Every structure is written in structure tokens, then in C-alpha cells.
Amino acid sequence: xxxxxxxxxxxxxxxxxxxxxxxxxxxxxxxxxxxxxxxxxxxxxxxxxxxxxxxxxxxxxxxxxxxxxxxxxxxxxxxxxxxxxxxxxxxxxxxxxxxxxxxxxxxxxxxxxxxxxxxxxxxxxxxxxxxxxxxxxxxxxxxxxxxxxxxxxxxxxxxxxxxxxxxxxxxxxxxxxxxxxxxxxxxxxxxxxxxxxxxxxxxxxxxxxxxxxxxxxxxxxxxxxxxxxxxxxxxxxxxxxxxxxxxxxxxxxxxxxxx
Length: 259
Fold this sequence. Notes:
This protein has one domain: Neuraminidase. It has one helix at residues 10-15; strands at 6-7, 16-18, 21-29, 35-39, 44-48, 53-58, 63-68, 76-80, 83-87, 92-96, 107-108, 116-121, 127-132, 135-140, 146-151, 162-167, 174-178, 185-189, 195-200, 206-213, 219-226, 229-236, 239-240. By secondary structure, it is mainly beta.
């Protein structure tokens, strides 16, 4: 099995024994993939590419539908229950249906300007964002009020160009990709933002922009801007010493003891 090259902060090394592991399982061409999220209803990927529309494609890259919002562009996208939360990259957000119907007016996130690159939703309904200017990992309540924030440049492995973000529903771990201007790697965090591992993605592609997880499986999707491809992986998270491997279909957030 091919393993990614990984690093650990000292805390992660002392508390965890099973390392973050990736094995490539496939890839396909897709023009300008950026922010991603997996949709179990359609067994497809929602993709934002900084244009006025977001597109839903099959796992083979075949287009299923396109949606618009009241924002000038859609730079980041995430499922929020049975609907979509989209962001314009400047702190503006809007909730829309999967048909593109607005559910409410656009709103802004607290905390000042940020170049929001990715959005994810926690099991509690919190909005988690990554920004690369300034470099931050932020948590907001559903209304957009800021709850907490981390300067990602102060991590033991600095995260300077965060792009896509996803949350593993089995563990609550946060996965973030750092693009070519940064470390071209995958970062793994606990729910509170403690760094667990960093895995280089250079052997798989350059300039990772988006990431998504398929709930109920070990499947991970990473979108690479250079080469315009989406690469699929079997993904094994970092786990504590003595923990059993996670079954693929473990109900969301059942194993809080891992975090």
C-alpha cells in the first residue's frame, strides 16, 4: 500500500498511534475544480469554481445540474442539511436549495474581511471556514457570529494558503488542503483545531484547491487546479493508540472519545 509522507506535531505523536494514510484509487479530468462537497442524495460532487454558478457532477465528472445565488460569485460551497451554503470569498454567504432557490437573503460573517476559500458544517451546525488572507481557521454560529478563530501561521506546521475544507463525519476531524503557494499538502485537525498530521500531496498533483469526504465510506476527493483533475483516495484518519479501525459506515460523530 502506498503511504503518503506525513509529519506530526509533538502532541499528536504522543497521543496517537495510527497515522493518517492515503491510497490513490482513481482520477478524472474536470476543468477548474475548486471548493467541493459530496452529495449523498445524488452520489455526486458540488463544485464551486469562482464563477456565478456552482455545478453538480457525478463521481465520473458528468454534469447533473447548475445553480446560481444572489452573490456575485460562488467561491466556496458546502451541504447544510438538505440545502446548500455558498460563499463569495469576501465574507458573504447565502443559503439556497439544490435547485438554486434562495432560502434567505445573503448575510455576512463576523470578524472582519477574510478571503474565504472553503466552508464546512459541523454536527452542531456551526460554520467552519478557512481563509488564506489573513491565514485563519474560524468557527461561526449559524447566523454568522464568530465563535472562535485560529491563526494557522502559528501552527507547528504553518498553514499559509488554506483552500478546501471537509469534516470527517465519523470522527469530527477537520481536513484542509494547502495549495502550491504553501506546502501542497493535506492537514488533519481535531474538532477544536489541534493539528494531528500533515501529509504531502505532491506525488498526486499540484495546487490542491478543494476536498470532500464521502460519508459512509473511506473515500476522499481532492481537486487539483494544476492539471484540472479530481483524485480519489482511500483515507484512514489518525487514531489513538489501541483504537479499532473505523468501520466505513459508522454513524456521524458517534465516537467522540477519539477526539
